Amino acid sequence: MEEQYRRKSYLTEKKYQLRYTLVIISSMCVMAIIVGGLTFWDISSNLGKIQAMEILRWDAYIIRIFLLLVATFLIGIFLSHKIIGPIRRIEEALENINKGNFSVRIKLREGDEFLKLSEEINSIAEKLNNISEKDPQVKDEFGKR
Questions:
Q1: Could you tell me the pLDDT band of residue 95, with boundaries at 50, 70 and 90?
Q2: How many angstroms separate the CA atoms of 60 and 58, rounded?
Q3: What is the rounded CA–CA span in Å between residue 23 and residue 26?
Q4: pLDDT tens digits for 34-67?
Q5: Are 66 and 53 in contact (CB under 8 A)?
Q6: Which end of the chain has fewer CB atoms surrounding its CB within 10 Å, N or C?
Q7: Mean pLDDT of all residues in 87-92
């Protein structure tokens, strides 16, 4: 049975994943400000600003925003890992293939992004491996790069 690839960490490429998550959180904050502002404007135009402040309970609004930020951060890390993790493994495999190691194979979990791409790269590596067994000079040419 083929060995299952196990996740070691959700933060495999911190720079990219945190930037991706920051974009999501920033977008969410902008939307929260817009929705909060529109809600306050709508209520205050009908009831007046003092009654609107009493009805909206800004403390509860701020707590909800904070909880949503934390949830969004965690979801952003998880989603970015599903993209960055496979890209990182594909990149490593291509570097090995370029060095002449045609026996390398990319192992992704079912449901990971780029599964089809990894299967195609594995197929190409298998064909290069077969060619290099017939003509060892092929492997030497790749190893020079």
A1: very high
A2: 5
A3: 5
A4: 888 888 788 878 787 777 777 767 777 778 878 8
A5: no
A6: N
A7: 90
Rounded (5°) CA angle 118-124-130 = 135
Q: Which residues contact 47 (CB under 8 A, 6 or more apart)?
A: 55
CB 76 within 8 A of CB 24: yes
CA–CA dist 30, 22 (Å, integer)? 12
Q: Which of 130, 16, 145 is nearest to 82 (CA)?
A: 16
Question: Could you identify the residue written with the tokens 């009654």?
Answer: 51
CA-closest candidate to residue 143, choices 102, 95, 99: 99
Of 103 and 109, the structure prediction assigns the larger pLDDT to: 103
Average pLDDT over residues 81-90: 85
Half-sphere exposure of 32 toward its Cβ, with a 13 Å CA cutoff?
Answer: 17
Q: Which two three-digit tokens encode residue 119? A: 């299967």
| Single-letter amino acid code for the residue at 127 | K
Element (H, E) at 28: helix 14-47
The DSSP letter of residue 13 is S
